[in-house]
Amino acid sequence: MPANETAPTLDDVARMAGVSTATVSRCLNDPDKLTKDTRMRVLAAIDKLGYTPNFAARSMAAKRTFTIGAIIPTMENAIFARGLQAFQEELDRRGYTLLVSSTAYKTDAEEKQIRNLVARGADGLLVIGHDRDPAIYDYLKQQRVPVLVTWSYDKAEATPSIGFDNRAAMRVFAEKVLALGHRRIGMISSTSAQNDRARMRIAGVRDAMETHGLEPDTLDLIEVPYTFDDGADAFITLMRRNPETTIVLCGSDVLAVGAIRGARLMGLRVPDDVSITGFDDIELAQVTSPELTTVHVPHHTMGQMAAAELVAMIEEKREGVSQKLATTIVERGSVAAITKTKTGG
Amino acid sequence: MPANETAPTLDDVARMAGVSTATVSRCLNDPDKLTKDTRMRVLAAIDKLGYTPNFAARSMAAKRTFTIGAIIPTMENAIFARGLQAFQEELDRRGYTLLVSSTAYKTDAEEKQIRNLVARGADGLLVIGHDRDPAIYDYLKQQRVPVLVTWSYDKAEATPSIGFDNRAAMRVFAEKVLALGHRRIGMISSTSAQNDRARMRIAGVRDAMETHGLEPDTLDLIEVPYTFDDGADAFITLMRRNPETTIVLCGSDVLAVGAIRGARLMGLRVPDDVSITGFDDIELAQVTSPELTTVHVPHHTMGQMAAAELVAMIEEKREGVSQKLATTIVERGSVAAITKTKTGG
DNA sequence: TTGTAAGCGTTATCAG
DNA sequence: CTGATAACGCTTACAA
Questions:
Q1: What pLDDT does residue A78 have?
Q2: How many angstroms separate the CA of B137 from the C1' of D10?
Q3: What is residue B158's predicted lDDT score, i.e. its pLDDT?
Q4: Is residue A215 a contact partner of residue A183, using CB atoms and an 8 Å limit?
Q5: Strand D contact with A34 (CB < 7 A)
Q6: Does B225 score more than 80 pLDDT?
Q7: Which residue of B has its CA nearest to A81?
Q8: Chain centroid to CA B305: how far?
Q9: Residues near A116 by Cβ (< 8 Å), separated by ≥ 6?
Q10: What parts of chain A have a pLDDT lower than 70?
């Protein structure tokens, strides 16, 4: 009975199979280069020993890890879950492993995490949105690590992105809402500093207001973090200081669900007393009552395309090419049309 | 302008600082062993070069990665988010990094993921629940990788666990419900095969029924995956085949929220027409209307204690010691008492 | 087709 | 306190 059992190495396999370590290595990485016979022998040894290649040694020798890092703002809610899931599945299909890291929306934590992923040998990086210290992009360029931005599309940016036009998406949505007669508009957004997605969505609402002859500054905006509670609190604050508000546009479904809860706490009926909208169209949008009218984001396609593009950037050693995806409006029941002027109380 | 810039190494730093690589290494791992003067010189070089230690090389040489792997059933909903967040924070505090991997509830994918984490040099592993192929535990023991089970506590199991008694928690909860007069009980559970938590919760309900003189077999049970939609569908199936059901106990908040949606789709009022309960007490439990009566799980404490214990197992090279945490019942509004016999329609 | 051997970037032991 | 130098486990020219 071996008292000091330790993980078997290439060497052990080689010895057992009666071949050199190079052959075992080839058997793993380039099986076709071996005789069927030796291949079988090696495979048998591997199996018998329960050998698993040592990742660190492998990546050090090959200078490749087949690992891709993703940094997301939060894992706490499902906003990024579906897209990331699709990203991961596509990566898997292409032989890559995903390493996720979340910043908890602390933008200054991002740099540290990025360096960590690079130190761990990530072959490429996926990040959410464009906004970040330029030094980070410089560092990545110097390290020759490809980056792809997602959840946002902006051809003006230097970093390639696969996502959607947050501003246009929100503008179209807001225009539809305005066409329904709403004039007293409130908005709950995630903190917009260091968050181009949030900023663009706000800008989109203002664009629409302007188009409809409303002064963009009359938008009653409140910025908060990203939880249900934040949404509920913000909603209450908003309605208290501006009771004649007829609709509250939220920067995300999570905030919107929170807002609906806030309305319930205040005894307001949605959408009879006040309309509420979301953004993202995550599963959650369908569990509230009423269900959420929101902007549908093509999470799955986005994740899949991002994976394909990032892998291509790595393997073909080329610049990434940006892609703009379309969003759609999903009407569900949290929005009512305005027929006559409503007076606050 | 350096045309072929590549990541700086220990060697580069050493050269620039005019010291040996050993000194640079010490500066990173054992700064006190250096003169203040040399330390400053090295630090300056590190800073100037923007040096980051290579993870693979480091873990190969040190045979330690300060990385801990966690395998969770899903990232798609928030069930594990809070606990994992706390786990991660505590790990961080102790100088470890967390690597998460999700199986999407495909239990046969778990072994592959575990091997992967081990190959990546995880110093320890956190897994959810006890149920898995014994071969996995053997493998881990042979590889000398400490494992800790969480989300479940069972002193009868060989693997140490920090969690709660799923069966007892559910029994106590069900007893309370029965005391309210409910006799026609339905239950929606996650698939219980390979999932001791789900199985124990079901058993807990049956225990309570027995105590109250009900035949445990009359429990109308339906097992489904884990999404909102699964919960909604299951609820509808349940109520159709057994319209006189007065309460539906769900194995998780996610399923319960789905069930509430199912009730809404069927035009049933909760809790007037039918009561619905959850399990976990995640944030979601407070966004539905009515809010969910559920079993509160001490996610945060659990994650924190698990991190502390696992790190101790690694650093002190000792067996883990199990801990049972308490759960509590949170009454919110989705449960009503039964006053008279209700007849299905 | 297979083997030999030189790295890959650290850490750690042992001298000095 | 600091410096050589031998691992660590694998990949990959280069030879045979």
A1: 85
A2: 27
A3: 95
A4: no
A5: no
A6: yes
A7: B76
A8: 13
A9: A101, B97
A10: 1-5, 340-345
Picking from B5, B99, B144, the nearest residue to A142 by CB comes out as B5
- What is the rounded average pLDDT for all residues in chain B? 93
Looking at residue B5, its pLDDT comes to 62
Instruction: Return d(Cα A210, Cα A181) in angstroms, integer.
Output: 15
In angstroms, the Cα distances linking B243 to A5, A119, B183, B343 are 60, 59, 13, 8
Q: Which amino acid belongs to residue A147?
A: V
Cβ of A139 within 8 Å of Cβ of B50? The answer is yes
pLDDT score of B294 more than 80? yes
Q: Evaluate if the CB of B194 falls below 7 Å from strand C.
A: no
Q: Is residue B128 over pLDDT 90? A: yes
Residues 6 or more apart whose Cβ sits within 8 Å of residue B239: B186, B245, B248, B262, B263, B266, B268, B274
Tokens 């509920």, residue located: A232
Bridge partner residues of B276 (DSSP): B248
Domain spans of chain B, in order of start: 10-53, 66-164+298-325, 166-297+330-344
Tell me if B223 sits within 8 A of B194, measured CB to CB. Answer: no
The enclosing H or E element of B149 equals: strand B147-150
**A55 C-beta less than 7 Å away from strand D:** no
User: Does the beta-carbon distance from B99 to A97 stay under 8 Å?
Assistant: no
Distance of CA A301 to the CA centre of its chain: 12
- How many angstroms from the chain centroid is the CA of residue A118? 19
Q: Which residues in chain A have Cβ-Cβ distances shorter than 8 Å to B143? A: 7
pLDDT tens-digit readout, B162-217: 999 999 999 999 999 999 999 999 999 999 999 999 999 999 999 999 999 999 99
Beta-carbon count within 10 A of A339 CB: 8
**Tell me, what's the pLDDT at A75?**
82
Instruction: Say yes or no to pLDDT of B2 above 90.
Output: no
Topology of the domain covering A166-297+330-344: Rossmann fold (3.40.50)
Q: Do domains A10-53 and A166-297+330-344 have the same CATH topology?
A: no
- What would be the CATH architecture of the domain defined by A10-53? Orthogonal Bundle (1.10)
Per-residue exposure over A157-195, b if at least 16 CB sit within 10 Å of its own CB, e if not = bebbbbbbbbbbbbbbbbbbbbeeebbbbbbbbbbbebb
Residue A3: what pLDDT?
38
A179 touches strand D (CB under 7 A): no
Residues 6+ away with beta carbon under 8 Å from A274: A239, A245, A246, A247, A248, A263, A268
Q: Which CATH class is domain A66-164+298-325?
A: alpha beta
For residue B188, CA distances in Å to B139, B210, B238 come to 34, 19, 9
Q: In sequence order, which residues have a C-beta less than 8 Å from that of residue A179 and are 6 or more positions away?
A: none
